[in-house]
């Protein structure tokens, strides 16, 4: 209350081959407060207390807190089985990263891991991360940089963080083996609906080509409600309740997901393949390209209206700056988009994995 409702967040996420444990605090701009001149320093101390002085009872976390969180998390993990979209996504991910043990287990872990996790072991792992892993500090807002540097050097943070830490070593997954021998898995469950999840690698697209061409291709294919997949598979032929595609710039993967009846699976797969051919053969219209360009620009503008956008941008500047484009570069790439580049992305799609979750409602 004394900090005018500062908001604390703690979460984990994947960044390439890293797991990121993120702590953040959002608070009011001191310039808009009558007596908020120490807001930055006070919030730094709050964050310092949360990270470096957690709720401990000797050599472990507070027992009730640990057991409560463990029980809640196990309950959440068990409930994943009711979210068939997530089940199919995880099934596809296991196929894509079958040779990477670290990616076989999702960021939120498994029930078996949780059952085997002791309170003492968790604290030991946490302290190892806090004391030894790379730290990236992001500051977003109307902040005096020199004053902030002064505040952080005089805070509890500096003494805790002032130690040798390793540089981040980026590693990329290669999909050559899967391009040669695509992975497939079919699972049957007692469900009313079925799911299909497909993955394609876009290796082979020339480096001289437009950097936004894969995203534009994906929007025309299935990344929007005006896309080929949505219009042809769902609307025109009623073969799916839901269908969409996504493009992941870091892994250069295109994934397609559809929810449908089990007797529509083969027809839907054929129609999906036809939509990819439609783009390969350059049959898409100039209007589709222009619509995709507008969507890309609008999404970027919306994204920049959030603190999280600037935090992530700052992180990527540290981790992998090649992925970033300035607004001017982004607009230039958008303006210089070539139909040949869009078709080329589709022509360089290699099917690498297919996961089917078939609902057997009549069992």
TrEMBL record:
Family annotation (Pfam families): Peptidase_M16_C
Domain Peptidase M16 C-terminal: 116-294
InterPro entries: Metalloenz_LuxS/M16 (IPR011249), MPP/UQCRC_Complex (IPR050361), Peptidase_M16_C (IPR007863)
Protein name: Peptidase M16 C-terminal domain-containing protein
Coiled coil: none
